[in-house]
């Protein structure tokens, strides 16, 4: 019987039995090779829904990943809220150029008709195209900025860090509005057909400059609010050496947490317990970009043996990553089950 990848993925996210541990990416999947094969390249694929969908679909149809993951940047909400965005190149992701609230939260509010702003309609349209093309068989994972990332784009990271110490009322105001924006956008993505959201939101946490008390007092309540108000599954992706924050982050209500290879699967599982599923953590630069398929497979199999719930790269796939290395992720998972079958016999 052919596995319904969508169902298998949702079972994994909800901690139910799976046919096989899903092998996919919850972070960006656009590579040069896939761009060349589909004719859907960055930067066009950030603003054209057909190209956005075509490149995302290639991650599944050509690279074999068991999900479709889009878009390819973390600037959609920042742009919708008034930040100027540079769209980047075939290898460089879009980036935020201006920070309209670097002096404080005065005048900040959820825009009227948020869903019509900037490139939000593009991502919603791409969701519809992908839903129609996958027919509910393959999970659609929509990436989006989390409230902390939106805050750091609106105000600039330096101001965020200063206010976290000196002006907690500013932080609360920003986080409240940014969380509201994230909830409205996330639910729209789910309404249009996304099966889960992945929110990479760890820039400040991973910087090591944010005191743990800020995470507990000023971030956690808003993550909880976000999770409570979502109509579907949500994944938190968090970069860097964040082992010390994982317990707190796992108490917010995310269905799963995606981690980089800097945190070991075993240590992360011990911190998270059964509060959330764990996703990761093949090294995207060390192994996927510069290694061989054999390196990828060895690391992937170790993740599976350590008990990861969903096998995935530890962060966004680099654009120059070889196709054979992307394909090795699913191949490794299949080989691991074959080898395990032999071990059991
Ligand atoms: Zn990351």
Structural write-up:
This protein has a single domain, classed as TIM Barrel (Alpha-Beta Barrel). The mean pLDDT is 95. α2 packs across α3, α3 crosses α5 and α6 crosses α8. The protein is globular and about 65 Å long. A hairpin with an 8-residue loop joins β2 and β3. Helix content is 49%, strand content 10%. It is built from 15 helices and nine strands. It binds zinc ion. The site of zinc ion has 5 residues, from loops.
Topology, pairings included?
Layout: H1 5-13, H2 32-38, H3 49-61, E1 68-70, H4 76-80, E2 85-86, E3 95-96, H5 120-134, E4 140-143, H6 147-155, H7 157-166, H8 168-192, E5 196-200, H9 203-207, H10 212-229, E6 234-238, H11 246-250, E7 256-259, H12 265-272, E8 277-282, H13 284-289, H14 293-305, E9 310-313, H15 323-344
Parallel strand pairs: 1-4, 4-5, 5-6, 6-7, 7-8, 8-9
Antiparallel strand pairs: 2-3
The chain binds zinc ion (ZN).
Q: Work out the number of β strands.
A: 9
In this entry the ligands are: zinc ion
- The CATH architecture designation is Alpha-Beta Barrel
Distance between the termini: 23 Å
Low-confidence stretches: none
Mean pLDDT comes to: 95
Report the C-alpha radius of gyration, rounded.
19 Å
Beta-strand proportion: 5-15%
Key attributes of the depicted protein:
345 residues; alpha/beta; TIM Barrel; two-stranded antiparallel ribbon
Describe the structure concisely:
The protein is of the alpha/beta class and 345 residues long.
